[in-house]
Design a protein that fits this description.
globular, seven-stranded mixed beta sheet, binds flavin-adenine dinucleotide, alpha+beta, fatty acid binding, 668 residues, binds ligand LV4UQ37V
Length: 668
C-alpha cells in the first residue's frame, strides 16, 4: 500500500538541500551516519517500545527500564559497539536510567580526580560494568551549597581507615541517580577530618571524594549503611525510571586508599597534603564535564518539541480571522503562531552550534588539565555553567510553549510533549540550580571587568577589552536591513553585556562588604550573566555562518535562523538595550519589523528545517508530530490504545454512579 505523505506540499516548498542540512545539524557526515544507525537500531527493536511507559506503575516502570538497560548492554557487547556508539544507543532509548550516571558522572569523577594507580584499578572494572557507580554529592540539607556538606570522613591512623559518617538527618545523601536501588559503588563527597582537625574551616579543603563499596555481594547494604529511593517524582513515566536515592552512613570504615587522591592526599601517618600545582577547584571538574554534556544534548530535546509543534502546525487548520466559519488557515500561517514557534526553531539550531563550540572548549581544557595547565579553567567553568543554565531554561520553557502551540492535543500524553517536559524540567535544577549557576557567571564577568587594565580578558570575555568603544559608541542601525548583518548584531549584544556588567560592577563597588553587595544585587547580576551568555550563543552562531557550509541554500536558511534568534532576543530584552542607551526606540522597532520579515522568509522552509533534525518517529513518540503527518486517524486510534478504554464501564461505576442516577445515595 502506498504511504501518503500529508506534509508533501510543505516539503516541496523547501528552498534548501535537506540532506546537506542534516549533515550540518549532526555535525559531520560521520556523526549523521552514527546517529542514524543508532536511532534506527532502537526504533526497529521491540525491546525499546516506549508508548506504554506512562501507563505503568513505578515498580513495573522501573523493572521495564532495567530490562531495556540490560538489553542495551547486550547489544553493545554482541555488536561490539564503541563507547561513542553506546552513548548514542542510550540516548535514543530515551529513558533516564542508572547507566547515565555510571558513564556520565561516576567514571568521569574517577578519571578526573583519581590518582594514576586508582584509575588503573577502578576504571577497567567500571568500564566493564563489573561495578556500577553513582555520584553522591547532594545532601538533604545542602544542594547548591557544596561547601556546606555535612557528611564526615575522619581519618583513623591506627587502622589506616577513613570513617564515613552522617552526623545529622540533613547530612543524608539525597537525590543521586542510580543510588537508590542499583549502584554497587558511589563517589561520595564528605568533609575531611585528620588528627581531630577539620580541614577547611576556611572553606578551602573541606570536602573530598571517596570511592567505596556500598553493597555486599548478596545485595544487601553494608553494615552501617541505610539506602533507599527518594520517592515518586513529577510526571507519569518521565524521570521515575531513575532510582534517585538516599544514603546514610553510621561510622562506615573504608581503607585510606579509597580517597580519590589526585587533588590531595592523606599519608599513612595522617599527614594531609594538597598538590601544589593542582587547584582545589578540580574536585568540581565532573560538574564541568556534565554541564558541557547537557548543553550538547539539550538542543536535541528542544528540536524534538519544535519538530512536533511545527509538523502539527503545518497540518491543522483553523478559521481565518475574518471568517469564524471557514476553516482555511493552517496554524503555522498565523503570525502569532510563527512568532512563538520560529524563535524556538532558531534556538534549537543556535543551541546545537554553541554546544559544538563548548565541546571544543571542554576538550581543550581537559587536555590542558591533564598537562597541569589550569589557566582556562575559570572560563570553562563560567561557560559551561552559564550555557547549561541558559539552554536548559529556554528548552524547558520552549517545550511548554510547544505544548500550548499544539492546543488541547499537545496536552495529551500521546503528543509526546507532556512526558518530554516532565523529564526535562529537572535539568534546570540538577547539575547546579540555574540561578546559582548564573550567579557564578556574573562573578566571573564582574571580576573580569574589575581587572581591566592589568589582566587581559580572554576567550568569551575578550569583548571587555573594547570596553571604551562598547560603552560610548551607540548603534548605527538606520533601516531594518541594517539589522541582518552578523558583526552589527554581535556588537549590539557585546554593548548590552558590557554596559550591564559595568553598571553592576559600579553598584557593587559602593558596598563595603562585597559579599553583601553581591547578595543584594543578585537579581541584577543574574541579568548580567544572561546577557553575557546570550552574547556567546549569538556570536558562535555568527561564527558558524562564516564557515564554509556546503549544500544548495543551506547557508541562506541558517542565516535566517541566526537573525531570527538574535532579533527575537533583541525584541524580548529590548528593555536592556534601551535602558543601557545603546538602542533608540526607533532602532528597537526596526528590529521587530525585520523579525516579521524574517518569519515570512523562514515559513516555506519550516518543515524541511525540522526534517533536517532526522528524528525517527520512535524518538519523537508523538502522534501529532509523525513524519507522514497522518495525524487524525492515529490520534483517534491512540485514544483506544489507552487501557482505560478497554471497557465502557469503569471500575466504580456501579458503586458510585448508579446510586446518583437511581437516587439511592443514602445506601452508600
Ligand atoms: C533538557 C534536557 C537535557 C538532557 C541532558 C541529559 C544528560 C544529563 C544526564 C545527567 C543527569 C543528571 C545528573 C545530575 C547530577 C547532579 O546533579 S550532581 C550534583 C550537582 N551539584 C551542583 O551542581 C551544585 C552546585 N553548586 C556548585 O557548583 C558550587 O558549590 C558553587 C559553584 C555554587 C560554589 O559556590 P561557592 O561556595 O561560592 O564556591 P567556592 O567553593 O568558594 O569556589 C569558588 C571558586 O571556585 C570556582 N568554581 C566553582 N565551581 C567551579 C567548577 N565547577 N570548576 C572550576 N571552578 C569552579 C569559582 O569560580 C570561584 O573561583 P574564584 O575564587 O572566583 O576564582
Ligand atoms: C532529577 C534529579 C537528579 C539529580 N541527580 C543527582 C546526582 O546524581 N547526584 C547528586 O549529587 N545530586 C543530584 N541531584 C541534586 C541536584 O544537584 C540538586 O538538586 C541541585 O544541585 C540543587 O540543589 P537543591 O535541590 O538543594 O536546591 P537549593 O540549593 O535548595 O535551591 C533552592 C532554591 O534556592 C535558590 N538558591 C540556592 N542557593 C542560592 C544562592 N546561593 N543564591 C541565590 N539563590 C539560591 C535556588 O535558585 C533555588 O531557587 C539531582 C536532582 C534532581 C532533581
Amino acid at each position: 500500500m502506498e504511504l501518503v505523505d500529508h506534509l508533501r506540499d510543505e516539503r516541496n516548498k523547501a528552498q534548501f538541500d535537506v540532506e546537506a542540512m542534516k549533515v550540518v545539524w549532526a555535525g559531520s557526515p560521520q556523526e549523521l551516519q552514527l546517529c542514524d544507525r543508532m536511532a534506527n537500531l532502537v526504533a526497529n527493536h521491540p525491546a525499546f517500545e516506549k508508548l506504554k511507559r506512562p501507563m505503568l506503575v513505578r515498580k513495573e516502570l522501573f523493572k521495564n527500564s532495567l530490562r531495556k538497560a540490560a538489553y542495551a548492554r547486550k547489544l553493545v557487547i554482541d555488536l561490539g559497539l564503541s563507547e561513542e556508539e553506546a552513548k548514542w544507543l542510550r540516548f535514543y532509548i530515551d529513558e533516564p536510567t542508572y547507566p547515565d550516571l555510571h558513564w556520565g558522572m561516576f567514571i568521569p569523577a574517577i578519571e578526573g580526580q583519581g590518582s594514576e594507580e586508582q584509575k588503573e584499578k577502578w576504571l577497567p572494572l567500571s568500564r566493564n560494568m563489573q561495578i556500577i557507580g553513582c555520584y553522591a554529592q547532594t545532601e538533604m540539607g545542602h544542594g547548591s551549597n557544596v561547601q556546606g556538606l555535612e557528611t564526615t570522613a575522619t581519618f583513623d591512623a591506627q587502622q589506616d581507615h577513613f570513617i564515613i559518617h552522617s552526623p545529622t538527618l540533613t547530612s543524608t545523601k539525597w537525590w543521586p541517580g542510580g543510588l537508590g536501588k542499583v549502584s554497587t559503588h558511589a563517589v561520595v563527597y564528605a568533609r575531611l577530618i585528620v588528627n581531630g582537625e577539620f580541614h577547611g574551616v576556611h572553606g578551602w579543603y573541606n570536602y573530598y571524594s571517596f570511592s567505596f563499596f556500598l553493597y555486599l555481594e548478596d545485595h544487601s547494604p553494608l553494615p552501617g549503611i541505610t539506602v533507599g529511593d527518594v520517592g515518586l517524582k513529577f510526571g507519569n513515566g518521565a524521570y521515575n525510571t531513575m532510582d534517585n536515592g538516599l544514603l546514610r552512613f553510621h561510622h562506615v570504615r573504608i581503607p585510606r586508599n579509597q580517597m580519590l587522591m589526585r587533588v590531595s592526599q592523606v599519608s599513612r601517618e595522617g599527614k594531609y597534603m594538597q598538590c601544589d600545582d593542582v587547584p582545589r577547584q578540580l574536585i568540581y571538574g565532573t560538574m564541568v564535564s556534565v554541564r558541557q554534556t547537557i548543553v550538547a544534548m539539550v538542543s536535541r530535546t528542544l528540536s524534538r518539541a519544535v519538530c512536533i509543534a511545527t509538523r502539527y502546525s503545518a497540518l491543522r487548520r483553523q478559521h481565518s480571522s475574518s471568517s469564524l466559519v471557514v476553516p482555511c488557515f493552517l496554524m503555522i500561517d498565523y503570525q502569532s503562531q510563527q512568532s512563538r514557534l520560529f524563535p524556538l526553531l532558531a534556538s534549537a539550531y543556535a543551541f546545537k552550534f554553541v554546544g559544538e563550540w563548548l565541546k571544543w572548549l571542554y576538550t581543550d581544557v581537559k587536555q590542558r588539565l591533564e598537562a597541569n595547565d589550569f589557566s582556562t579553567l575559570p572560563e570553562a567553568h563560567a561557560s559551561t555553567a552559564g550555557l547549561k543554565s541558559l539552554t536548559t531554561s529556554a528548552t524547558v520553557d520552549g517545550i511548554e510553549e510547544c505544548m500550548k502551540l499544539c492546543g488541547g492535543d499537545g496536552y495529551l500524553v500521546s503528543s509526546g510533549l507532556p512526558e518530554l517536559f516532565a523529564v526535562s524540567v529537572p535539568a534546570c535544577t540538577y547539575e547546579g540550580d540555574n540561578t546559582v549557576l548564573m550567579l557564578q557567571v556574573a562573578r566571573f564577568v564582574v571580576k573580569t571587568v574589575s581587572e581591566v587594565g592589568y589582566k587581559e580578558p580572554l576567550g568569551t570575555s575578550s569583548y571587555i577589552r573594547r570596553l571604551n568603544t562598547l560603552l560610548h559608541n551607540n548603534c548605527l542601525v538606520q533601516t531594518g536591513e541594517d539589522w541582518v548583518k552578523g558583526d552589527r548584531i554581535v556588537e549590539a549584544f557585546e554593548a548590552r553585556a558590557a554596559r550591564m556588567a559595568v553598571t553592576c560592577t559600579q553598584h557593587l563597588a559602593k558596598f563595603q562588604d562585597p559579599e553583601q553587595g553581591f547578595s543584594e544585587l543578585s537579581a541584577d547580576l543574574v541579568e548580567v550573566a544572561v546577557a553575557h551568555c546570550q552574547l556567546i550563543v549569538v556570536s558562535k552562531f555568527v561564527e558558524k555562518l562564516a564557515q564554509d557550509i556546503p549544500g544548495k541554500g543551506v547557508k541562506e536558511a541558517l542565516e535566517v535562523l541566526c537573525y531570527v534568534y538574535a532579533l527575537f532576543l533583541v525584541h524580548k530584552h529590548q528593555g536592556d538595550f534601551l535602558v543601557t542607551g545603546y538602542l533608540t526606540p526607533k532602532q528597537a522597532s526596526l528590529a521587530n519589523r525585520q523579525l516579521r520579515i524574517l518569519y515570512s522568509r523562514l515559513r516555506p522552509n519550516a518543515i524541511a528545517l525540522v526534517d533536517a533534525f532526522n528524528h525517527t518517529d520512535h524518538y519523537l513518540s508523538s502522534v501529532v508530530g509523525r513524519y507522514d503527518g497522518n495525524v487524525y486517524p492515529n490520534l483517534y486510534q491512540a485514544a483506544f490504545n489507552d487501557p482505560f478504554n478497554d471497557s465502557h464501564v469503569p471500575d466504580g461505576y456501579h458503586q458510585y454512579i448508579h446510586p446518583i442516577l437511581n437516587q439511592t445515595l443514602a445506601k452508600l
